[in-house]
Amino acid sequence: MAIKQHQERQTAARQASGLPWEDNDLVFPNPFGQMQDPRSWSKKFKRIAKAAGINITFHKLRHDHASRLSENGVSIKDAQYRLGHSTTQMLLTVYTHRISGGQEKIATWLNTSFPAAPTDHETPLQ
């Protein structure tokens, strides 16, 4: 229902503007019906953040999002798809950052996930 209303408002605004229109069936096109330039979103975000007294870029939000996905156990393949990367390597190399406490989480998992080696075992486990 909301998308239908959005389309109706968009059609009315387009017709009122008199601008040339290229119908690409986009939900949020630019004023000419084409894909929006991603830089315009970054510029808008920068103005809003500055007005709010926050020193962060739109791109830093992507890094934060990727790191949070990793921290919360989302599969690398799902995170890759969500962020639109062509390979998981791009995601791992550029966007995920070492999460603090990661080594401690691994140690806790190892200590609680596997049974301890029997103490009466004749040869040490290797």
The fraction of residues in strands falls at under 5%
Query: Can you give the helix content as a percent range?
Result: 55-70%
Radius of gyration: 24 Å
Could you say which structural class the secondary elements and strand pairing correspond to? Answer: mainly alpha
Number of helical segments? 6
The total strand number stands at: 0
Main sheet summary: none
Q: Average pLDDT, to the nearest integer?
A: 82
What is the helix/strand order?
HHHHHH
Domain count? 2
How far do the termini sit from each other?
62 Å
List keywords for this structure.
126 residues, mainly alpha, 2 domains, elongated
How would you describe this protein?
The chain is mainly α and 126 residues long. It folds into two domains: 30 residues, no CATH class; 65 residues, no CATH class. It is built from six helices and no strands. Helix 4 packs across helix 5. The longest helix is centred in the first third of the chain and has 16 residues. The radius of gyration is 24 Å and the shape is elongated.
